[in-house]
Amino acid sequence: MAYTEEELKKELETKEYEYGFYTDIKSDTFPNGLNEEIVIAISKKKEEPEWMTLWRLEAFKIWKEMEEPEWANVHYTKPDFQAISYYSAPVKADPNKSLDDVDPELLEMYKKLGISVDEQKKLQNVAVDIVMDSVSVATTFKKTLAEKGIIFCSISEAIKEHPELVKKYLGSVVPQKDNFYAALNSAVFSDGSFCYIPKGVRCPMELSTYFRINQAGTGQFERTLVIADEDSYVSYLEGCTAPSRDENQLHAAVVELIALDDAEIKYSTVQNWFPGNKEGKGGVYNFVTKRGLCEKNAKISWTQVETGSAVTWKYPSCILKGDNSIGEFYSIAVTNNYQQADTGTKMIHLGKNTRSTIISKGISAGKSQNSYRGLVQISSRADNARNFSQCDSLLMGNECGAHTFPYIEVKNKTAQIEHEATTSKIGEDQIFYCNQRGIDTEKAIALIVNGFSKEVLNKLPMEFAVEAQKLLEISLEGSVG
Amino acid sequence: MLKIENLHASVEDKEILRGINLEVKAGEVHAIMGPNGSGKSTLASVIAGKEEFEVTEGSVQLEGEDLEETSPEERAHKGVFLSFQYPVEIPGVSVTNFMKTAINESRKARGLEDMPAKDMLKLIREKSEMLEIDRKFLSRSLNQGFSGGEKKRNEIFQMAMLEPKLAILDETDSGLDIDALRIVANGVNKLKSKDNAVIVITHYQRLLDYIVPDFVHVLHNGKIVKSGGKELALELEEKGYDWLKQETAV
Ligand SMILES: Nc1ncnc2c1ncn2[C@@H]1O[C@H](COP(=O)(O)OP(=O)(O)OP(=O)(O)O)[C@@H](O)[C@H]1O
Ligand SMILES: [Mg+2]
């Protein structure tokens, strides 16, 4: 029925956060505030070895001296770092329990999230490591993976069980001093996932982690470390949801990927943290540092579907250190109402014949602001480096914004760089055309948005592409056929 | 089937349709001709329910039911189909996916389940063969990069898939080469029955050699200024519109 721009806009506004419920599980929460004692307490609580405690303290020292960055095209009230509790663990959680013993309330929550562990078990193809409020509560398929020598566990467990790997690689791609939020994360990270694929092994299933912020006023600081040893392959999916709350929640994660010679890592993210209500109140601040390192002939692909968070600040990057290595970035970022997103990627070409591809699709509705910020850097040694970037923006209505900031730094004359950008608007004519064929406006929008995002959706593993489409529908209030 | 009475419609306070009366019965073919800018496409859009145009007076009835409060998609569900003069592009959405969505939405409106994939594929094969459409074409993005003629043929493919009660073809012949015109016209003829009706908007007699109209109407300045049988089209071809314009100016 409705199809004028005015009406279209109204329709988009009425979206509610589908996963906004609060599960009443008893939590063990630290007092608010951050100081050395808290850092030590976190480390102790997690029964960490001394080297880890020291590493955290070093990060804390660095963080204290740092200033919060201000250059992104986002505006928000800065979080009060002393008003946040830095640790919250569900008390009933016990990683040694079998799935059948898992707290029924937790299982209920997974069901609401549409990722019931039962279902995942049946699916037989996805191993899930769920991080809820900081502690890994259920890990499946460990055995199948172990047979191949694959390690997939919480980072806390890895610190205890595989210290040599953690010591060697933690902070090797994103050092403690990298940036304000990375330093903070290094000091206080509560949990996260760890994954190691041995030489020559192709991980037989998609590895998947779901993050979720549950407790009021808790910041979530996960730390993810994925190591693909020589000639191995892994596809990893990270999904996130957060219950809706009035106050802003902080999320500052660090993800490090290491692809050794001839290895390949595919890292896909579906992020739908609470974006705030339609007046722009509440929502998650998502400040994430994600970076991968490629050795010789290695390949890293980042694929992300971002529909949530009030403020997003995120640039999954690739350091193409080895010759012939490949970096890819495929992104869909949707913003609605008062959401602000400043995302993009950095492709750092160090090795010879390195190649990178960037496909970014921004969809803005309501009064939201959607920025793409990309850096392509070609070092003097990187002979014959190639980059292709394509940034497409789709606007709905007249009050939202799309911005593109491509930065290119080339220090080698043999580099080949291509950049394409388009901006389009969902037109009344397109909507009417769909209406005339019997497709209502909501469905028409979903169809058009899906078509616009197709190149990126196609990069997601099958089962998650379906889920991502569902998220696009929810965030733009529509449905897809 | 379709009854239009004293229809006035305007856009941005500019009156474009100024009192149209037209009745189309099941089994009939009507041709609407008339000079550029006379309001032919506007009439088609108003019948299809485009809200950009405001109906200020008069009514459009489909099978006895006033359509004033009926949304474009509901009209489509009731069997109204418009072959657009300028079909729009939808990047990334394949012809097949678009048709699948359209058909299932119409079925949903009628309380039916989604069409089983097998039936859908069969229907697609049948209709694309009838219109001699290459299967590869169906996986391309809707209308994106289609030639003028391909767009028009694709409109008729959609019509064939949806099997409407009332089809309005707005200059479907323009852009079609001689062979394509024959194929498309044959397609339309095959879909014709005593239960449905077709309105063809065209500038050329040529199409009407294939799709033979029962009535021909001439639209000028938002009004039907002359109606007649199929011979009227021949007369127009020969004489142009001037004599009619003069007649109505008097
Ligand atoms: N959205 C609009 N805003 C302003 N004027 C419009 C609009 N749509 C149509 N018109 C005007 O209405 C008149 C009729 O247009 P319409 O497209 O119905 O003509 P037509 O008979 O289909 O012409 P043609 O043979 O060239 O296709 C034209 O003068 C056109 O400029
Ligand atoms: Mg016209």
TrEMBL record, chain A:
Pfam families: SUFBD_core, SufBD_N. Coiled coil: none annotated. InterPro entries: Fe-S_cluster_assembly_SufBD, SUF_FeS_clus_asmbl_SufB, SUF_FeS_clus_asmbl_SufBD_core, SUF_FeS_clus_asmbl_SufBD_sf, SufBD_N. Residues 211-452 form the SUF system FeS cluster assembly SufBD core domain. Residues 121-203 form the SUF system FeS cluster assembly SufBD N-terminal domain. GO terms for biological process: iron-sulfur cluster assembly. It comes from the Bacteria. Belongs to the iron-sulfur cluster assembly SufBD family. PANTHER family: FES CLUSTER ASSEMBLY PROTEIN SUF, UPF0051 PROTEIN ABCI8, CHLOROPLASTIC-RELATED. This is Fe-S cluster assembly protein SufB. It comes from Zobellia amurskyensis. The lineage of its organism: Bacteria, Pseudomonadati, Bacteroidota, Flavobacteriia, Flavobacteriales.
TrEMBL record, chain B:
Gene3D superfamilies: P-loop containing nucleotide triphosphate hydrolases. Keywords: ATP-binding, Nucleotide-binding. InterPro entries: AAA+_ATPase, ABC_transporter-like_ATP-bd, FeS-cluster_ATPase_SufC, P-loop_NTPase. It holds the Pfam family ABC_tran. The keyword Magnesium does not apply. Belongs to the ABC transporter superfamily. Ycf16 family. This is Fe-S cluster assembly ATPase SufC. It comes from Zobellia amurskyensis.
